Amino acid sequence: MKKIVSIAIALVGLQFGLSAQEVIKEPHVSEEKKSVVNLSPEANAQKDVEALHSNFTLNAEQKTKAYDFSLSYEKKLAEIKTKYSNDRDNQRKEFNSTKGEYRSNIKSILSAEQLEKFNTVYPDKQY
Predict the structure, then answer these.
(1) What's the CA gap between 67 and 106, in Å, rounded?
(2) What is the C-alpha to C-alpha distance for residues 120 and 56, in angstroms, rounded to an integer?
(3) Can you tell me the distance from the alpha carbon of 73 to that of 41, in angstroms, rounded to the nearest whole number?
(4) Mapping DSSP to helix (H, G, I), strand (E, B) and coil, where does residue 97 land?
(5) Which is deepest, 12, 39, 82, 102, by most CB within 10 Å?
């Protein structure tokens, strides 16, 4: 009788052990991460301009210039990603210098009020 109970307990314990391993095999990935796709530079630039417009109400001329700056920026980022695909340190340095240039370009097209708001929403970081 003791052997049967011991075997039953061992089988139940084994079952729990196997089911725990299955849970570990599937990492938790949020639904947001699953839906992230790599957009084209044009789509990213358009998304950037829409965000700038919603935050700072850009006029038509500012939108056009912001799109040109954003498109150039997104294309440079794509080039950097392929150039330094295995070198994260250099990739980060290039990203930061490119981002600094992009921010300067965006700041150059903003009015004084928009620039003040830009500086509060996006405070300068060291690049």
Answers:
(1) 10
(2) 12
(3) 8
(4) helix
(5) 102
Instruction: Catalogue the long-range contacts made by 90-97 (C-beta closer than 8 Å, 24 or more residues apart).
Output: 96/127, 97/127
In tens, the pLDDT along 48-82 reads: 999 999 999 999 999 999 999 999 999 999 999 99
Please check whether residue 75 is in contact with residue 83, taking contact to mean a CB–CB distance below 8 angstroms: no
Encoding tokens for residue 104? 């300067």
| 0.85 surpassed by pTM | no
According to DSSP, residue 51 is labeled H
CA atoms within 13 A on the CB side of 56: 27
Query: How big is the chain, counted in residues?
Result: 127
Cα gap 2→32, rounded to integer Å: 52
